[in-house]
Amino acid sequence: MPTIAVIGAGPGMGLAIARTFGSRGFDVALIARTKDKLQALVDQLGQEGITAEAFPADVLDRPSLTAALDAVKARFGGVDVLEYSPAPHSPVPGHTLAVPSEATPDNLQPQIEYNLYGAITAAQAVLPAMREAGAGSLLFTTGGGSVDPVPMLGNVNAAAAALRNWVINLKQGTDRQRCARRARDDQGLDRRRRPGGLRDGHGRRDRPAVLGPPRKA
């Protein structure tokens, strides 16, 4: 079965996303800081017939996040969908809210660590296998303030904007790589089909591949 890893699993959006994918045949890996709270969600999903397991990790502790995703891959055989939406449900040391005029490197850096660096760490843990398989999805369902900022979240909005910029660039870069790979594959096929290349069962050379609309009879 396909697997979704939900990072920032909580009783709100994280649970809703897990339930949505789980009800459609996905195994669910729940990742968050508190093991007991995760286990309660696992039990709740299990009562609904959804296979779920808890993998405690802190997005601020990058090695622990990578280790958790490695454990998910070992348990379920891989990660087909990565969903990233950490949201503090209890105070996080060092995390304070600041309006733009009061944003400082000191109160912005923890938000960068939380929103951007955690997302990059998670993506790096699963993206190579997705590229090799030619399939997979990365979902970043956080950072609404990057599009519709709220002044009281001035430092959070800045970190969310950094995340949104990185995600857009990641998608564009991945799309270009996919197009380049397809072009190389097409060129390889074209070379194999050119005169002097492959021959059919009667010894005749294949005609070169032609791109464009078919000729009228």
Molecular structure report:
With 217 residues, the chain is α/β, with parallel strands linked by helices. It has one domain: Rossmann fold (3-Layer(aba) Sandwich). 49% of the residues lie in helices and 10% in strands. It has five helices and five strands. It has helices at residues 13-22, 35-47, 62-76, 105-133, 154-193; strands spanning 3-7, 27-31, 52-54, 81-84, 137-140. It has a five-stranded parallel sheet, sandwiched between helices. The chain is globular, with a radius of gyration of 23 Å. The termini are far apart. 30% of the residues are buried. Residues 194-217 have low confidence and may be disordered.
Topology, pairings included?
Elements: E1 3-7, H1 13-22, E2 27-31, H2 35-47, E3 52-54, H3 62-76, E4 81-84, H4 105-133, E5 137-140, H5 154-193
Parallel strand pairs: 1-2, 1-4, 2-3, 4-5
Helix pairs in contact: 3-4, 4-5
Key words describing this protein structure:
single chain, 217 residues, alpha/beta, Rossmann fold, 5 helices, disordered C terminus
Largest sheet, if any? 5 strands, parallel
Q: How big is the Rg? A: 23 Å
From the N-terminal CA to the C-terminal CA, the straight-line distance is 48 Å
In total, the number of strands is 5
Taken as a percent bin, the fraction of beta residues is 5-15%
Fraction of helical residues: 40-55%
CATH topology: Rossmann fold
Q: Which structural class is indicated by helix and strand composition?
A: alpha/beta
Broad CATH class: Alpha Beta
Count of distinct structural domains: 1
